[in-house]
UniProtKB/TrEMBL annotation, chain A:
GO terms for cellular component: plasma membrane. It is an enzyme of class 2 (transferase). The keyword Membrane applies. The chain crosses the membrane at residues 167-187. This is histidine kinase. GO terms for molecular function: phosphorelay sensor kinase activity. SMART domains: HATPase_c, HisKA. It is found in: Membrane. Keywords: Kinase, Membrane, Phosphoprotein, Transferase, Transmembrane, Transmembrane helix, Two-component regulatory system. It comes from Cribrihabitans marinus. Its EC number is 2.7.13.3.
TrEMBL record, chain B:
GO terms for biological process: regulation of DNA-templated transcription. It comes from Cribrihabitans marinus. InterPro entries: CheY-like_superfamily, OmpR/PhoB-type_DNA-bd, Sig_transdc_resp-reg_C-effctor, Sig_transdc_resp-reg_receiver, WalR-like, WH-like_DNA-bd_sf. The keyword Transcription regulation applies. Gene3D superfamilies: 3.40.50.2300, 6.10.250.690, Winged helix-like DNA-binding domain superfamily/Winged helix DNA-binding domain. GO terms for molecular function: phosphorelay response regulator activity; transcription cis-regulatory region binding. This is Two-component system, OmpR family, response regulator TctD. It comes from the Bacteria. GO terms for cellular component: cytosol; protein-DNA complex.
Length: 458, 221
């Protein structure tokens, strides 16, 4: 019944992957933000100290003896040393001439005015940050442009930044791990109602067609609603088809019974041989059609029940005995004896109605094809490889070359042309046994056929 | 025997009544559960033939109340259903047997006989003819104090002869009643059974006489 279901992706996996991607992006953004902020803050700090140093140098500059004089305040450079171990360079220019300091420091950038300016450049194989400011001093009535530059290498800042980046990375990683954990938990708990529903439906017995009651989350309500409507339709159509089978059988068989009975009555009254032959032919045709209809309906019912196989303990001996009693009168009409022998008390797990139907079909066949005044033996026994019922008749056996073909639908032995039958009997028996995990074995033995119903070991 | 037939299809009921009366049975017909109850409560029947699908209710309902009233009359259910489980269901409800429509009357007779034999008791079905005693239910024949068990076809053949002693039965009619319609048999097949019956009846006053070219009749000399 259950065909291969195409499975594509998993909600849980998709949910987790999406949540993790989101968390990763957020963590990366966080790390970036923290390091950028740290860099900016460090930059601004360094800049303001450098500028403070520049300003304090500028403030000490005076004109003495007609020349620009500088009294480099210790504090101006030591405040830089306090910040880090970085090397500090300075240079004081007066109208472009180096007054003091490192003359080979890169020149201050364009547009450095009173308020000063900053630049990042390289000096002595190291990256430096340099702050510069200018001021005009009046030396003997002539304005002299004084430029003060203070620079510092950035190793310490880079180290601190790397530290902060590491810390930021650790925080980001922690954040990501926490988010991942939450994602898994969320996916699990979010899908729990779905799992519960699937479990509840798959735990149901084959005949349990009650609607699903819930409670289910709002999002699943449409799905469960559709499922319930589907179950309802299924229940309805199942009960309809069972009723239909019963009704169809009733409608077909009641008129057939009338015709058959009338034909039998007519046969008692009619004398002319050709009329009698015609009436007998009619009765045979009725028997054939009613038997065919019966077996088709039986087959439909058997197919239906094997699809929903219910298993209970079935006592094979009791079942065979009841059936032998039931079919006794029919067999007796032909002076056929049904002999039953039971070896032990074999019990199998299965559907008693189906097993009865299978055995009935096999026995019907045996009775139908047997010559008068003979016996049919039923042996019920428990073998090592499971219980078995053997039905042996003295009806001449199956045609050897057709043994495999016999239990196929509508197949009839080539020697059966004269007997009423539809060819479904052995098919029904085979299908019932296969549904129970057993098999139907046909063979010829002595002067008759032997049909064995093998059941699997319990 | 006295039958109650509970069957709602008028045409089928009429045919079955005709057929049973042809064999000399007394039959009442009820068309629904209500009538069936009325009949069953006022008359003693040997057997009730009960259809399952009735207009005013399920035949099974009748069966249930019938058994609740501790009525011992055996019931054979006539079922047109094929629902495999249905057959088992009616037996659980206390039916003695069931037969699927359309049915062969010889099968119905055989089932009636089997049910009555299983139930035992009841009125004796013994028949005396000449100096033999014949019990169709038990399938025995007592000839000169010796009891003989008859095979089914011998029994039915003797029953047919004894239903109308001295009457001539053609071989063809006897074959029809003794063999089912799906058996291919020649009219001469009947000779085997007449032969067997004659052997059983040897030493009694009862004789099966051959009327050359016509058939047989039974006489008590």
């Amino acid at each position: 019944m259950s065909g291969a279901l195409a499975v594509s992706g998993s909600i849980r996996r998709r949910l987790i992957v999406q949540l993790l991607l989101g968390a990763a992006v957020l963590a990366a953004a966080l790390v970036l933000l923290v390091t950028n902020l740290a860099r900016t803050v460090a930059q601004e700090t360094q800049d303001s100290i450098l500028m403070a140093s520049v300003t304090s140098i500028l403030d000490t500059m005076t004109v003495r003896d007609g020349a620009v004089s500088v009294d480099l305040p210790y504090a101006a450079l030591s405040m830089l040393g306090n910040v880090s171990e970085d090397r500090v360079f300075y240079r004081i220019l007066a109208d472009g001439a180096v007054l003091t300091g490192y003359g080979d420091l890169p020149p201050p950038g364009e547009g450095v005015g009173r308020d000063g300016g900053y630049q990042t450049t390289r000096y002595r194989d190291a990256e430096i940050r340099m702050a510069s400011a200018r001021r005009l001093l009046s030396v003997a009535g002539t304005p002299v442009r004084v430029t003060v530059s203070v620079a510092q290498t950035r190793d310490g800042q880079a180290r601190r930044l790397a530290e902060i980046r590491r810390l930021g990375g650790a925080i980001g990683l922690g954040f990501f791990a926490l988010a991942a954990l939450l994602a898994v938990v969320t996916a699990q708990s979010g899908l729990r109602p779905l799992r519960n529903l699937a479990g509840a439906v798959s735990r149901r017995g084959p005949k349990d067609l009650r609607p699903v009651r819930g409670p289910v989350p709002q999002e699943m309500a449409p799905l469960v609603g559709s499922l319930n409507r589907f179950i309802e339709r299924l229940t309805y159509s199942l009960s309809r088809s069972e009723d239909f089978i019963a009704e169809a059988a009733h409608r077909v068989r009641t008129p057939l019974s009338t015709v058959r009975t009338q034909a039998e009555i007519a046969l008692r009254r009619v004398e002319r041989p050709e009329n009698r032959a015609a009436l007998k032919e009619m009765i045979r045709a009725i028997d054939e059609s009613s038997r065919a209809a019966g077996q088709l309906l039986d087959h439909a019912m058997v197919t239906f029940r094997t699809d929903h196989l219910e298993r209970e303990a079935v006592d094979l001996c009791g079942l065979a005995r009841d059936l032998a009693d039931r079919l006794g009168p029919v067999a007796e009409l032909r002076d056929i004896r049904i002999a039953l022998s039971c070896d032990g008390q074999p019990v199998v797990q299965g559907d008693a109605v189906l097993i009865e139907n299978a055995l009935r079909n096999v026995l019907d066949n045996a009775i139908k094809y047997s010559p008068r005044d003979c016996a049919i033996d039923i042996e019920v026994g428990q073998g090592r490889d499971g219980a078995a019922i053997r039905v042996r008749d003295q009806a001449g056996g199956f045609p050897e070359d057709e043994l495999d073909r016999m239990p196929m639908r509508f197949a009839r032995g080539s020697n059966a042309a004269e007997t009423v039958g539809s060819g479904l009997g052995l098919t029904i028996a085979r299908e019932v046994l296969e549904a129970h995990g057993g098999r139907l074995e046909l063979s010829n033995e002595g002067e008759g056929a032997c049909v064995t119903l093998h059941f699997p070991p319990c | 025997m006295r039958f109650l037939l509970v069957e709602d299809s008028e045409s089928l009921a009429a045919a079955v009544l005709d057929r049973l009366r042809l064999d000399g049975h007394v039959v009442d017909h009820a068309g629904d559960v209500e009538q069936a109850r009325a009949f069953a409560e006022t008359t003693d029947y040997d057997l009730i033939l009960l259809d399952i699908m009735l207009p005013d209710g399920d035949g099974r309902e009748f069966l249930r109340t019938h058994r609740r009233r501790a009525d011992e009359t055996p019931v054979i259910v006539l079922t047109a259903r094929s629902a495999v489980s249905d057959r088992v269901g009616v037996l659980d409800l206390g039916a003695d047997d069931y037969i699927t429509k359309p049915f062969d009357f010889s099968e119905l007779e055989a089932r009636c006989r089997a049910v009555l034999r299983r139930r035992g008791g009841g009125a004796s079905t013994e028949r005396r003819f000449g100096d033999v005693v014949f019990d169709p239910l038990a399938g025995t024949l007592v000839v000169a104090g010796t009891r003989v068990d008859l095979r089914n076809r011998e029994l039915r053949l003797l029953e047919i002869f004894l239903s109308a002693p001295e009457r001539l039965f053609s071989k063809a009619k006897l074959v029809d009643r003794l063999f089912s319609y799906d058996e291919e048999v020649s009219d001469n097949a009947i000779e085997v059974y007449v032969g067997r019956l004659r052997k059983h009846l040897a030493g009694s006053s009862v004789q099966i006489v051959t009327v050359r070219g016509m058939g047989y009749r039974i006489t008590a000399g």
